[in-house]
């Protein structure tokens, strides 16, 4: 069943591009969390999205909000991706078991073996407050995401 607004967000612990474990529950009661699933590091649409997120990091990560980007790429690929473009937010690897977290969020594409393009905003209680799924080739609208965060706060 697909995740709905009002549902508890499935918890996860994944390694970021530095090999550090990052858990959704670590932000409970402290921060809202923006979880951004994307198909592939280094692909054109995903690279453009990550660069835009990085350029606007203050809109999506700070004292009250944390940004977590998840793909099914290996951790070492995510490190190269982050180093190349200077991403400072967490790029999380859902590589093994392959796509397990993306499956729990209902966004794993079995045919392509990757996560789809899903954005989920959870509140400090871990409840989904906003979400939108885009087609693989369609970049997300960061202005819509920013408006959702303003409403949440």
Walk me through this protein's architecture.
With 153 residues, the protein is of the alpha/beta class. It has five helices and nine strands, in the order E-E-E-H-H-E-H-E-H-E-E-E-E-H. The protein has a five-stranded mixed β-sheet. Strands 1-2 form a two-stranded antiparallel sheet. Strands 6-7 form a two-stranded antiparallel sheet. Helix 3 links the parallel strand 4 (65-71) and strand 5. The longest helix is centred in the first third of the chain and has 12 residues, at 44-55. The chain starts with 12 loop residues before the first strand and ends with a helix. The mean pLDDT is 96.
Brief description of this entry?
With 153 residues, the protein is an alpha/beta fold. Helices cover 28% and strands 26% of the residues.
Overall 3D geometry?
A: globular
- What is the typical, i.e. mean, pLDDT? 96
Largest sheet: 5 strands, mixed
Number of contiguous helices: 5
Strand line-up across the major sheet: 5-4-3-8-9
Q: Report the end-to-end length measured between terminal Cα atoms.
A: 28 Å
């Amino acid at each position: 069943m697909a995740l709905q607004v009002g549902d508890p967000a499935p918890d996860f612990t994944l390694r970021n591009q530095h090999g550090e474990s990052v858990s959704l529950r670590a932000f409970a009661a402290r921060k809202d969390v923006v979880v951004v699933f994307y198909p592939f590091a280094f692909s054109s649409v995903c690279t453009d999205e990550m660069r835009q997120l990085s350029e606007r990091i203050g809109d999506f990560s700070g004292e009250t909000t944390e940004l977590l980007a998840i793909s099914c790429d290996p951790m070492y690929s995510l490190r190269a991706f982050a180093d190349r473009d200077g991403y400072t937010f967490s790029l999380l690897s859902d590589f093994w078991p392959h796509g397990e977290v993306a499956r729990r969020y209902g966004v794993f594409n079995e045919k392509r073996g990757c996560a789809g393009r899903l954005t989920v905003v959870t509140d400090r209680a871990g409840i989904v407050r906003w979400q939108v799924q885009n087609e693989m080739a369609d970049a997300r609208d960061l202005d819509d995401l920013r408006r959702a965060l303003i409403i949440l706060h």
